[in-house]
Amino acid sequence: MQSFKQLVMHPLRFRLFLFTQLPSAWFAGVRIVHIDEKSAIVTVKQQWFNKNPFHSMYFGILSIAGEISTGILGMAMIYKNNPPVSMLIVKNEAQFFKKATGTIRFTCKAGEAIAQTVATAISTGEGQTITCLSEAHNEAGELVASFLFTWSFKAKQPRQS
């Protein structure tokens, strides 16, 4: 995970990754502020592009940042893996508790569970799923929203010649 962490924690490289692979997240201003083997923290700031008519952040932008906080941990676990492992969201649930204004911080602490799920997918050759929680807090530390993303991981089979 060290090489992946260096890749995503370098601000310019991560912004280039977002620009080329997830342009809506790039345009919305999603930033990674922390990643390690256990957790990831992502932020997004309310701005003219991502607001709704109710003067808060649009729920789609919140979903993007929540997904990235869980997905970046999955990507870290499968980065340059042999055999290669695919990942895909198979389910999403969200609850919204408060208006999202200012800078919103998304925290996912499922890194170790994701690593175990990936290891099981590789060892069994079967697809495995895991549901990861991402909690969104405002600048006052109040819970704004919570997201559950269910990810599927499956080791890719070598091609037959």
UniProtKB/TrEMBL annotation:
Gene3D superfamilies per UniProt: Hotdog Thioesterase (3.10.129.10)
Keyword terms: Membrane, Transmembrane, Transmembrane helix
Entry keyword annotation includes Transmembrane helix: yes
Keyword Membrane attributed: yes
InterPro entries: DUF4442, HotDog_dom_sf
UniProt source species: Deminuibacter soli
One Pfam family cited in the UniProt record for this chain: DUF4442
Protein name: DUF4442 domain-containing protein
SUPFAM superfamilies referenced in this protein's UniProt entry, alphabetically: Thioesterase/thiol ester dehydrase-isomerase (SSF54637)
TM region positions: 56-79
